[in-house]
Design a protein that fits this description.
The protein has two domains: 119 residues, Glutathione S-transferase Yfyf (Class Pi), Chain A, domain 2; 137 residues, Rossmann fold, CATH 3.40.50. The protein contains eleven helices and eight strands. The longest helix has 16 residues.
Length: 281
């Protein structure tokens, strides 16, 4: 199985290890991520202004490239997933956006109408590979026993944030009020999920431009709640959430680990520079 792959800016610059873990884990599990050539930044956030067209063009180019390759489009980043899927929805349902975008891109020989299926890497794990097969792969990598997984006995809190789940009617990723997919992922790698009330609340990352105290307050609430419920550390699929929670962790001893690093570590994959050294904390 081969998918078109949109890595996004963070995973190609500040977090190349997380991109590495995703690719290598995919190989072990039987699928391939084929990076879109000359992709551009998705913009980081979906523009809410109805007349905003220009900032959607880079996403449409990537969506059209995936369509031309005949493959579904996979991304790892919650923010990229949110933007790509919302823009794709516009290209399926909003005649004004469809007309203006295609008018802009006509000179490049691009015409697109939302044909590409946008998938998060976690959805590939759940719907294509299956949790049972992932758990078996973890067992195989750890002497045939899930108890040998580096996460067996670890209490892990899933942190969804907001971009992976909302708007729920468009993303259709999981139940925005009571998601389950990352908890199922935790079980598959041998850990024990911890449910806490702040797991799908915003970390406040974008509000830093307005007031630095807001993300600091939100991060403290999330980390404190997870700690109170017994979490040893948190797992997230959003690089921005991970950065924000770590930057504002204060005196909290909870680490925040990206899901591809956890998956790679559970599958016995190590990066040349030391690999997932933080993944079993």
């Amino acid at each position: 199985m081969t998918y078109s792959y949109f890595p996004g800016c963070t995973l190609k610059n500040k977090a190349t290890d997380l991109d590495f873990y995703a690719r290598k884990s995919a190989e072990v599990l039987g699928f391939t991520l084929e990076e879109i050539p000359e992709w551009q930044c998705c913009g980081g956030e979906y523009p809410l202004a109805k007349d905003e067209i220009a900032t959607k063009l880079s996403s449409v180019r990537s969506l059209a490239d995936a369509h031309n390759s005949g493959k579904d489009l996979v991304t790892l980043c919650s923010a990229c997933y949110n933007v790509l899927k919302q823009v794709n929805n516009d290209m399926q349902t909003d005649e004004n956006v469809i007309f203006k975008v295609n008018n802009y891109l006509k000179a490049d020989g691009i015409e697109y109408h939302g044909e590409t299926k946008v998938i998060h890497y976690l959805e590939v794990l759940k719907n294509v590979i299956g949790w049972d097969k992932i758990q078996q792969a973890v067992k195989d990598a750890n002497g045939g026993d899930i108890k040998n997984s580096p996460y067996f006995g670890k209490k892990i809190g899933a942190y969804y944030g907001c971009l992976l789940l909302r708007p729920g009617k468009i993303l259709k990723f999981d139940d925005p009020e009571n998601p389950q997919i990352i908890e199922d992922f935790i079980k598959a790698v041998g850990g024990t999920p911890v449910i806490y009330s702040q797991r799908n609340e915003c970390c406040g990352a974008y509000t830093i431009f307005e007031d630095k105290k807001i993300p600091a307050k939100r991060s403290k609430a999330i980390l404190s709640n997870a700690k109170d419920m017994g979490a040893d550390f948190l797992v997230t699929s959003c690089p921005l959430c991970r950065y924000n929670l770590i930057k504002n962790k204060g005196d909290s001893d909870l680490d925040v680990i990206y899901f591809t690093e956890i998956l790679a570590n559970a599958l016995g994959i190590k990066k040349e520079d030391g690999g997932a050294e933080n993944a079993s904390k």
